[in-house]
Design goal:
elongated; alpha+beta; 15% strand; 8 helices
Length: 223
């Protein structure tokens, strides 16, 4: 078993060197960052758990959530957090201008492959450039769970001028449910009060997306 894991690690390094860092999957990137696991916690299992934890974490909770993973101490948690921070600082999605719903897809498509529904808020500045992408909730979209307080808190903190709502449908059907529509209505009413525009609500799956704007489903406060 140890020989197989060692070979996999060597193959991964060789392929990354030959093809570039865009080649490895997220779990492989984590494995490259950590370098090794332990007899009790093999590197691939550890990397898989770390990616799952990252998918369910907001930026401010990453280190704390990683420390709750068995086998992850402060050194590994900080190594992952430091790599993410460096990537964020050099990431080309920050300040990327969003002009159409399709412009948003490359930055949220990673959520499309999740087997859990994630509600995401993308904050934008006055030029409709991305400030940050936030996971607000994990689980079935529900008006009682998606509260305006959670949805708008990061936008207020970041002094955002606008935001785009996004979530994935693991079922593969991107058509909005009645719950999706009603939740969007509630959030639009709050956006008018707070003065932070909601530009769109986009639903994604592995192959398609559904834009409320493109289907004339963004409602005003009097509808």
């Amino acid at each position: 078993m140890e020989t197989n894991l060692t070979n996999k690690k060597l193959d991964l390094r060789e392929m990354a060197l030959e093809h570039g860092m865009s080649f490895p999957f997220d779990e492989d990137l984590v494995a490259l960052i950590l370098g090794s696991g332990s007899k009790e916690f093999p590197i691939q299992s550890m990397a898989r758990k770390i990616v799952e934890t990252l998918d369910n974490s907001n930026e401010k909770d990453i280190v704390r959530n990683l420390l709750s993973v068995k086998g992850i101490g402060s050194s590994k948690a900080l190594a992952i957090a430091a790599a993410l921070e460096l990537g964020k600082r050099r990431s080309n999605h920050l300040r990327a201008p969003i002009r159409t719903p399709e412009d948003m897809i490359p930055f949220i498509k990673n959520f499309a492959v999740s087997n859990k529904e994630r509600f995401v808020v993308v904050t934008l500045n006055g030029g409709h450039e991305i400030i940050q992408i936030h996971v607000v909730s994990v689980g079935t979209l529900n008006r009682s769970l998606i509260h305006p307080r959670e949805v708008f808190s990061e936008a207020i903190r970041e002094n955002a001028a606008a935001m785009i709502l996004c979530h994935n449908h693991p079922s593969g059907n991107v058509e909005p449910s009645e719950e999706d529509i009603q939740t969007t209505k509630i959030l639009l009413k709050a956006s008018i009060i707070l003065g932070i525009d909601i530009l769109d609500h986009i639903i994604v799956d592995r192959e398609k997306y559904y834009s409320f704007v493109e289907h004339n489903l963004l409602f005003t406060n009097d509808e």
